[in-house]
Amino acid sequence: MKIIVKNLQRKISVKPAEIKKVIFKALRFEKINQSGEISVLLVNDQKIKRLNLAYLGKNSPTDVISFDNSINKNKIFADIVISVDTASRNARIFKTTPLYELYLYVIHGVLHLIGYDDKNAKQRRTMRQVTERILRTLEISQK
Question: What is the pLDDT of residues 57-75, one digit of tens each?
Fold first, then answer.
């Protein structure tokens, strides 16, 4: 699996290698061993708001958007776009760190790509539980 991280922001200091590690861990945790390419784009609220409107019809910023560009189920070709502005804002609200929120969104995006959904309460609870287990295996702290 090839992973590309494009950091188009300066709000949160990130290490692309750490983001890649989180993605690989999430894929391994879910026993996904497909080849392909995942790109992660770190942007501000303004950029993700434009994407949210263009692709999902919602005129507001959001935390993460996943785009599955795969042609078949044998390979993953996808983009994950993350708002660091939202990560920073939510870190203050939830008393976590912006980096923790960013990793949370990376995992959330990966889970969407491999078939998880969060359209109802039960699905959201399941995604949250899987995300928290992955974060624990990575030993990523909320503080």
Answer: 999 999 999 999 998 888 9
Extended strands (E) in the chain: 2-7, 35-43, 64-68, 75-83
Concatenate the DSSP letters of all residues of 49-80 into one string. Answer: HHHHHHHH---S--SEEEEE--SSTTEEEEEE
User: Quick one: which of 70, 60, 76, 19 has its CA closest to 42?
Assistant: 19
Greatest Cα pair distance, the chain, in angstroms, is 40
For 31-45, write each residue's pLDDT tens digit.
Answer: 998 899 999 999 999
Q: Which two tokens stand for residue 13?
A: 């200091």
Q: How far apart are CA 108 and CA 134, in angstroms?
A: 10
